[in-house]
Amino acid sequence: MTATVFLQALISGILVGGVYALIGIGLTIIFGVMRVINFAHGEIMMVGMYLTYFLFTLFKVDPFVSIVITIPLMFLFGALIQKVFINRIIGALPQNQILLTIGLGLIMSNAMMLAFTSDYKILTTSYSSGSFKILTSIVNPDRYEELYNKGNALFAKASKREGAKAAQTYARAAASYEAALQVTPDQYKGLNNWGAALAREAMVRHGGDAGKQLDEAAGKFEAALAASPDEFEIAYNEAITLAARAEMASGPAAGPLYAKALGKLKAALELRPDSYDGLNALAATRYRQAGSKTGIDAERFYAEAYRQYLAAQAVKPGAERTDEEAALEKPLPPPAEIKSVLDREYARFAPPYRIKADKRDAGLSVSTPLAISFLITVAITALLYWFLMKTDTGQAIRATAQDREAAQLMGINVNRMSMLAFGIGAALAGTAGALISPTYYIFPQVGSAFTLKAFVITVLGGMGSIVGATLGGIIIGIVESVGAVAISSDWKDVIVFAIFLLVLLVKPSGLMGRSRI
Amino acid sequence: MALLEIKNVSKFFGGLAANSDVSFSMDEGMIMGLIGPNGAGKTTLFNCITGYYPPSRGEIVFAGRRMNGLQPDRVCKLGMARTWQKVRPLAKLSVLDNVMVGALCRTNSLSQAQELAMEQIRVVKLDHKTAFPAGGLTIGERKKLEVARVLATQPKLLLLDEVMGGLNPAESEEIIRLILAIKQKGVTQMVIEHDMKAIMRISDRIVVLNSGEKLAEGTPEEIVANPEVVTAYLGSD
Amino acid sequence: MRRPPQIPGGESGRSRVGLVAMLLVLAGLYAFPSFVQSPYALHIMILLFLGTIMGESWNIIGGYTGQYSVGHAAYFGAGAYGTMILLQKWEIAPWKGVFAGIAAALVLSLVIGSICFRLRGPYFVLASIAVAEIVRLTALNLPNVTNGAEGILMSDLPPLSIGGRVVTDFVSKVPYYYIGLTLALFTILVTWLVQHSKLGYCFQAIREDQDAAHSLGINLSLYKNCALGISATLTSLAGSFYAIYIKFIDPTTVLALDLSVQIVLIAIIGGIGTIFGPVVGSLVLVPLAEALRSNIVAQWLINSGLVREDSGLGVFLKENLAHAHVLIYGILVVVVILFMPEGVLGYVRKLSARKKG
After folding, report:
1. In C, what residues contact A, Cβ < 8 A?
2. Pairing of strands B4-13, B57-62
3. How distant is the alpha carbon of residue C78 from its chain centre?
4. To bridge C159 with a disulfide, which of A263, A366, A491, C169 should be the other Cys (CB 3.0-4.6 Å)?
5. Spatial contact of C68 and A95, defined as CB atoms under 8 Å apart
6. Contacts C320 to A, Cβ<8 Å
7. Dihedral sign (CA C310, C312, C313, C319)
8. First-last CA distance in chain B
9. pLDDT tens digits, residue range C141-191?
10. Chain centroid to CA C202: how far?
């Protein structure tokens, strides 16, 4: 992990952490005032996400603007839940409170599923995938990135050249990637591009130890896949390299190599089933394999290559989308015609390599929607703080959190305060839902993961402490984001839960101590 | 040799001293009264003696054995049992089952435990409520249940934390007789109590705690005559 | 433990009637497959047994000892994966693999116990969830061992033979019926034994008041771990049985939080801390879920003429009611907690007591 990568992860961690903090603050206020742990918190957030989604798709309300509608609606929703359900179990066994809220969560997520199915919904705004750069004068690309960028530039140049000149330039690109990887090993993008450069050079040069070099290239792709297994491009590159190797081998050695290449291609296509390049390469490889066969085998393989050719045509970018299945069901033309179509398409065709060409510039990239949501989070948190500290109602809520009985004796209507607190908690969760909806999938079961996250955050900060929940949210955001790049994104939740257990065992009162709304 | 020795015991919570440098000892068979105004550290001392808190400083020696750091269950097994200021009945279990839980400290056999339990239930005169759930008892009955339950653990030393609190005079009188009857059986007792008349009547010796420190120790007569004790109780008020 | 067995009360006549009724039910259950051949009916019965096993096992730690673990999927998964991995990778027969599952669950319960039992109340619940999630994510991220998200499909179940004689080849559902029934009876027996022993008294004392129990000489961590160990063992049995019956497991079915919640619900809805509570819970939940899942309810509404099949509502019900069983769980648990906190069994008892008195 380079310093830039770390800083980048830190920034996105803090931004996401802001939203997490909002979820955590909601849970902590509810706990503080009622001593009820709300296991439906994530589900309430999910309701907020759907609300935002429908406001956007039906009424074209921008998700960030829509919080002025979401906040009051979610407040009412929360107050209603408190009045009807939670109010009856204040002071009951904590287990029963937990089970009741689990039940409410199940009702919310499954009612949502019945109403809107469990399909993932995506809310795409004009700025959903937007980003901007900060700190461009301070954060420079490091040595790895310089060499990597240089390699990419050379690769681009080489692909415009021909013959020996092209081979030379590919070789220089390969050398540049190699040097980059010596600075920082195991970068999958670098490995992928290195492999592509090696393979292209071997293919252009064609002769001598070209076969061996293709094997070497395939090895690089293998290593890249080990570092990042779900990249379609890398699997695809490895497959076409193996296909080229098979073609170079000819004779009986070619058979298993073709089979291996086809297997890889199919595996790659599972990652992206409608890739034109992928399907086209599959057709081309089958066609080549058919060329190495004779008789009925060859005819069968040509027929299959033709089918794959049709499948590729169906997804060809720019072309009119034909009904793929209908095309495949049509009877095949006679073998001679098939052969001629395939010859025209694939005889001189070499599938293009897909390199990772993203240029790493100076500065850190910040996602626009996350940045906006972070600013809103800060504003809301400040407002809430002001409300709790400076207004009479806010102080009454804090008094109730400190000592319910004493507050009651002092004439505070604790039932009203509980309803307010649950309403505020739900409004905050709903707002968090609205804020992440431009960058997150929306589906009925999305809540439970956030419920767990909310617990981790509040326990980390100290149950009942708003400052603690804010800190906890940002810490968890950072841990997730840095953990994902430092270790692996598969294990980031495990890291979060491990930290949670550690805090529970070592300092159960959390970072900020208990009950300090 | 003394059955229980408290040697310079201190207990701090944060910077606050709940007990500081308390020392006294108890002989077998006696009743020691422990008195003091609210917040004097009586219950904290009980908790230190019975293993709920480790003392911050000092030593607790019971029957010649150092008790510091032992868990409450070990303490009970070694023959020291306590009741709770705020009674803690096992609410959903019957009176008999409550007392049997105590008896099971000494035996693994249910039938033996039941015999032991019935014996103690008769001692506290709750035998008409054997099958009654403990959660439904009156406060007086709960206090008796609490005593029966600890008696069933067959303690050498019994620590009673305000067993007369919240009782009417008739019920208190019953408890006083019970405590004296337990003494007759040779069980040593340490009793925290607010009712001065009662404590003077039952105690062989009395220790007075004030703001966590031992203010005085002596026979009931000596304590009544001690001007410092009188000031502590009546003084600044 | 309302009435210890040693006290011969005036109820011996009633208990004798109860005993005879119980024996009749038992005989009926063992004879059931000779009268009913429908695989679907057998399937429902097997699910009932499975629900009972899960509910009873949770009941020991949750109902009797009062430690609300919402992470029991970890032990269920340990049983399921233990049995399945041994069978698929080393061809070790499930009746041996079961013990590997139990061993895995026991080790897991010791680890979880030593971490979570230092915490009380809601903190214990949260910790139990966190540990179970760690187990699930680990299974998901170790594809070499567990086959990851793809899960494990059982290829072939070797016939069970004792002394060279083939007892069953597992073609029909009948052998599963008997295995399930026997396991369910076994867990009920274990629960009965626990309740009528020192263990039961110590567990319930801990449930009612940990500090009081501690002061009465009960070693908290010993007895809590003991309860969790028994519970984990029985839950892993349920997991192993599930794996060989359904023949497919993956982290989202056998290790998920949903499953942990369902296990708790069976016990809660029936009534915790009683021997037959989980049986009642299983009798309520399983048929309900199955009726919704197989669209019986939607079909009934349409057949009864309440809803027209071709109306929008009819189409909607037919398509979606099958997914509603979890919704029903949610509604049930809310109703039970608010209106019958002692569970269905406790509620019925209260009603009948009110009638009498």
Report:
1. 66, 68, 70, 115, 118-119, 121-123, 125-127, 129-131, 133-134, 137-138, 140-141, 257, 261, 264, 268, 320, 323-324, 326-327, 329-334, 337-338, 341
2. antiparallel
3. 15
4. C169
5. yes
6. 114
7. positive
8. 41
9. 888 888 888 888 887 777 777 766 777 777 788 889 999 999 999 999 999
10. 23
Q: With contacts defined as CB-CB under 8 Å, which chain C residues touch B101?
A: 201-202, 204-205, 213, 216, 218
Candidates A371, A373, A420, A366; CA nearest to A393 is: A420
Per DSSP, what are the bridge partners of residue B59? B7
Contact: A110, C323; criterion CB under 8 Å: yes
Chain C CB contacts of A508 under 8 Å are: 119, 123
Strand order of the sheet with strand B16-26? B16-26, B4-13, B57-62, B65-66
Can you tell me the distance from the alpha carbon of A298 to that of B214, in angstroms, rounded to the nearest whole number?
104
For residue C127, what is the nearest residue in chain A, using CA coordinates? A501
Whether the full predicted model's pTM is greater than 0.90, yes or no, is no
**What is the token pair recorded at A450?**
């956030």
**Interface subset of B 130-169, CB within 8 angstroms of C:** 131, 149-150, 153
**Dihedral sign, Cα of residue C64, residue C66, residue C71, residue C75:** negative
Q: Are strands B188-192 and B31-35 parallel, antiparallel or unpaired?
A: parallel
Does B90 contact C3 at a Cβ distance shorter than 8 Å?
A: no
Task: Assess A183–C contact: CB distance below 8 Å, yes or no.
Answer: no
A103/C333 Cβ within 8 A: yes
pLDDT at A361 over 70: no
Is the per-residue pLDDT at C40 higher than 50?
A: yes
- For residues B163 and B192, what is the distance between their CA atoms, to the nearest angstrom? 8
Answer yes or no: are the C-beta atoms of B18 and B12 closer than 8 Å: yes
Query: What are the sequence ranges of the domains in chain A?
Result: 3-131+362-506, 142-229
Across the interface, whether the CB atoms of A452 and C130 are under 8 A apart is answered yes
Count CB neighbours of A104 within 10 A. 24
Which residues 180-209 of chain C have a CB within 8 Å of chain B? Answer: 196-198, 201-202, 204-205, 208-209
Q: Are A210 and A198 in contact (CB under 8 A)?
A: no
Mind listing the pLDDT tens digit for each residue in A108-126?
999 998 888 878 888 888 7
Chains with 3 or more CB pairs under 8 A to chain B: C
Of the candidates C68, C129, C324, the beta carbon closest to that of A452 is on C129
> What digits encode the pLDDT tens for the residues C250-260?
998 899 888 99
Instruction: Pull the structure tokens for residue A210.
Output: 């070209």
Q: Closest CB to B90: pick one of C7, C204, C214.
A: C204
Helix locations, A228-354, DSSP H? 232-249, 254-271, 276-291, 295-315, 324-329, 335-346
Q: Which of A249-253, A419-423, C44-48 has the lowest mean pLDDT?
A: A249-253
| Predicted-assembly ipTM surpassing the 0.95 threshold | no
Domain architecture of chain C: domains with CATH = 38-356 (1.10.3470)
Can you name the residues that pair with A129 across neighbouring β-strands? none
Q: If 0-12 CB within 10 Å is exposed, 13-18 middle and 19+ buried, where does residue A59 land?
A: exposed
Residues of C in contact with B149 (CB under 8 A): 216
Q: Which residues of B touch C219 (CB under 8 A)?
A: 71, 73
Find all residues with CB under 8 Å of A269, minimum gap 6, and list them.
Answer: A275, A278, A279, A282
A94 at the C interface (CB within 8 A)?
yes
> Rounded distance, CA B227 to CA C78, Å?
70
| CATH 1.10.150 assigned to A3-131+362-506 | no
Q: What is the dihedral of CA A163, A166, A167, A171, to 10 degrees?
A: 170
DSSP for residue B134: G
Q: Are A235 and A225 in contact (CB under 8 A)?
A: yes
Pick the CATH number of A142-229 from 2.40.128.20, 1.25.40.10, 3.40.980.10, 2.60.200.20: 1.25.40.10
